[in-house]
């Protein structure tokens, strides 16, 4: 108890002094992570203060993430999130190679198409055309919903006018889409269902909203519907976050039947579907039909989010969102409260780019290139790794999600570290689960930044490491 | 009670059916706003269901904003926020004039400098120079902290290198700055102090974080320190949001002494200061010295937010943020979770614009133009309105905040409506208070979009309406 002693004289309120003192003890490891803090009664007695002072101090510690309260059992010290550590290690490894030449590293972590294929020159031309055409307008005008022209293009080119331009909201990429939808829909203690595993950027947003997060395992054609419905029966679910095509990280896509089942459940159990349609342009397997949740939605249940930055120029930070009628106003207000509006010039340039048919050309070009890479990657994985890993071919996208076979005595974090030492970068599955440990047997490899030679070399190295 | 009857057969969970039914009753005014809902016991008896079913239904209503629970007294119906209505009327009036020619309306609601003064041509030239210089980089590369070059420029030009470029985070405007800082600092039930009145966009964000909001009245040289400290003494305050120069809407600026007092209090009561430095470039009264809270901060207490969109080209959506060391990591993560990063091309262009000295030229030009407008406006207000309104000259910025004298039998919402009918637009004070009614005697008029003729004409009309 002695370490809790602190001088309480002076004009600072006593509870603030006590809080500061305990924070210091935790930061310096004089109180261990998870250590039980003294009871309110005993600490107030020891420091000769009111019970209320200690209650306030513990509340403040809790607010600042330095303590957790367990019902009926007292307060416990909490050091900053420990699972964060690997995330840090991972992002530092990525930063390290960001400046390096392609030849030095074999980078299987790429999340966007390679720079080599980006239509930089034609986009520059379009940008200049817009500056000449619109002048000041393009730099000054702010439109809360987004540039009218772009919204019309999206309505015509991507939705065959089935979605009106007034129902389209331009956002600064899919991540912002998820953030503003969450702000409009999800409050503290609301319940959200996500796929397991899922995109870590979405998990972070839901955690930040202090939602209760339920995970439902992904299967080959979508989530496990039985487990999904069990959760729906027991809990008041607000929304379900899903990536309908080439789900990140598993690469799996929903069957149309499963989408319809989920839409029915949404109506029965009164929840909403947040559809993150992030990669559907890259379908290689012709058996996969493109029909989004949104296009199947008859009951105003689906909020649709689409990123252009994921597959086009990442630096332009543009995407769009189609709200449900019910949340239209609150989602639009959420956008305004988040950053007023998205940069107008880029929207105008993208609009012109789409109108000129350049978007379509770029996509079909990209589709062709990546389809052959995909097939190569698939065959090399089979050739080099088949006895050590299990996987299902996604039929599209830019990633494979591999499971290390049970008999191999190495998890994906160990593999990540060993591979990194050999200048090969992979993404361990731990990043995609609420409980990171559940991803220990999995890793993701993407081929978007990799040519054939590096592909072979890299997979060979992974093979050797898994021996 | 009869109106509560609903058929509970079918596969939809009973509590969902009941919730839907009650929502409909509220939406259709069959249950009034504020009407007490039946007790759990009586409704469960009436509908022949378990108590738990009604508890779940009421919880769901509450989550969706259709009911509030009052401790020990039961649940009450809630219609969507009624104070929203005027906000809507106001923004619709603004939208209506957005497309019109300047001659048709006299617009005192302008929040940004007039388009006529924007350096569109020189910014376009700079944009093209960047596209030629950086090519693909400018459209592809994403930097979480923001473009290194721009962060260095900001460090050198605005902070004399006293703030390192690593401590600068580029954001998409001040509104985003407030949003991401709030996400990193403020959780449900945390307490925040704001100035009264204050910027409505900040109020919205704090409400959305479900913070407890305390207001402290603004005086001529900053907030009322006694009232401020009283709140600090009684409550565990997490942060204080302030606009240090030409506060929105009052136009008042903090004395250096008051800033120092607040910084001391921050250390004593362990809270943080969010400084929104949105207009300090426009100082006309030479007695006002520029020294931000941040520059006076010795104890890592101030999070500084600066918008470039407010005074420069609104469409470029760029600002920056200087976190405290303690929240640096969580604020940076908050930015990533919000929208990954800000559009790179615009950052590069702004950087080059600053490096070429064009920013400085533009600012001194703007300062000169607006100083003379400010003086004109001040003299015309005195000439036309002095017997009907009270005000304090701000000595800078682009607004005046006027109080309608007590003997006049008209509030600012009435004035807004009457003025609008005469094609004159003003901003009623009601938008800037937690309790809108407190702003009923005030209105804001800005001169950024107005030439001398319209100024005279518009003030004359306001004078006549107040007769």
From TrEMBL, chains A, B:
The keyword Transcription applies. The lineage of its organism: Bacteria, Bacillati, Bacillota, Clostridia, Eubacteriales. It comes from Clostridium muellerianum. The keyword Transferase applies. It holds the Pfam family Aminotran_1_2. One of its GO terms (molecular function) is pyridoxal phosphate binding. InterPro entries: Aminotransferase_I/II_large, HTH_trans_reg/aminotransferase, PyrdxlP-dep_Trfase, PyrdxlP-dep_Trfase_major, PyrdxlP-dep_Trfase_small, Tscrpt_reg_HTH_GntR, WH-like_DNA-bd_sf, WH_DNA-bd_sf. Residues 12-80 form the HTH gntR-type domain. In the C-terminal section; belongs to the class-I pyridoxal-phosphate-dependent aminotransferase family. Keywords: Aminotransferase, DNA-binding, Pyridoxal phosphate, Transcription, Transcription regulation, Transferase. This is PLP-dependent aminotransferase family protein.
């Amino acid at each position: 108890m002695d370490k809790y002693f602190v001088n309480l004289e002076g004009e600072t309120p006593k509870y603030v002094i006590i809080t500061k003192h305990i924070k210091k003890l935790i930061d310096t490891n004089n109180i261990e992570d998870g250590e039980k803090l003294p009871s309110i009664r005993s600490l107030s007695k020891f420091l000769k203060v009111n019970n209320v002072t200690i209650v306030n101090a513990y509340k403040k510690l809790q607010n600042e993430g330095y303590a957790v309260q367990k019902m009926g059992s007292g307060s416990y010290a909490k050091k900053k999130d420990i699972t964060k550590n690997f995330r840090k290690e991972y992002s530092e490894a990525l930063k390290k190679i960001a400046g390096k030449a392609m030849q030095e590293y074999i980078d299987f972590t790429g999340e966007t198409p390679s720079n080599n294929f980006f239509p930089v020159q034609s986009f520059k031309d379009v940008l200049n055309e817009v500056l000449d055409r619109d002048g000041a307008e393009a730099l000054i005008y702010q439109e809360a919903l987004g540039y009218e022209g772009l919204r019309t293009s999206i309505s015509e080119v991507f939705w065959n006018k089935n979605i009106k331009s007034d129902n389209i909201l331009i956002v600064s990429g899919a991540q912002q889409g998820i953030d503003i939808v969450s702000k409009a829909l999800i409050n503290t203690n609301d319940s959200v269902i996500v796929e397991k595993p899922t995109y870590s950027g979405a998990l972070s947003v839901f955690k930040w909203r202090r939602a209760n997060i339920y995970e439902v395992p992904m299967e080959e054609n979508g989530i496990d519907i039985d487990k999904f419905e069990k959760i729906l029966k027991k809990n008041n679910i607000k929304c379900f976050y899903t990536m309908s095509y080439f789900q990140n990280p598993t690469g799996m896509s929903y069957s149309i039947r499963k989408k319809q089942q989920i839409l029915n459940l949404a109506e029965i159990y009164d929840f909403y579907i947040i559809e993150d349609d992030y990669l559907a342009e890259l379908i290689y397997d012709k058996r996969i039909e493109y029909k989004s949740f949104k296009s199947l939605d008859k009951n105003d249940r689906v909020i649709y989010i689409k990123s252009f930055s994921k597959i086009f120029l990442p630096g332009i930070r543009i995407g769009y969102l189609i709200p449900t009628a019910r949340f239209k106003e609150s989602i639009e207000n959420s956008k305004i409260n988040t950053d007023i509006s998205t940069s107008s010039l880029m929207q105008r340039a993208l609009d012109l780019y789409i109108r000129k048919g350049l978007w379509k050309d770029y996509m079909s070009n990209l589709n062709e290139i990546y389809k052959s890479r995909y097939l190569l990657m698939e065959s090399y994985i089979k050739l080099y790794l088949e006895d050590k890993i299990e996987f299902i071919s996604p039929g599209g996208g830019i990633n494979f999600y591999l499971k290390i076979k049970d008999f191999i005595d190495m998890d994906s974090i160990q593999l990540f570290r060993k591979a990194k030492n050999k200048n090969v970068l992979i993404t361990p599955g731990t990043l995609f689960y609420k409980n990171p440990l559940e991803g220990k047997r999995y890793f993701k490899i993407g081929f978007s930044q990799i040519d054939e030679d590096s592909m072979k070399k890299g997979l060979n190295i992974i093979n050797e490491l898994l021996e």
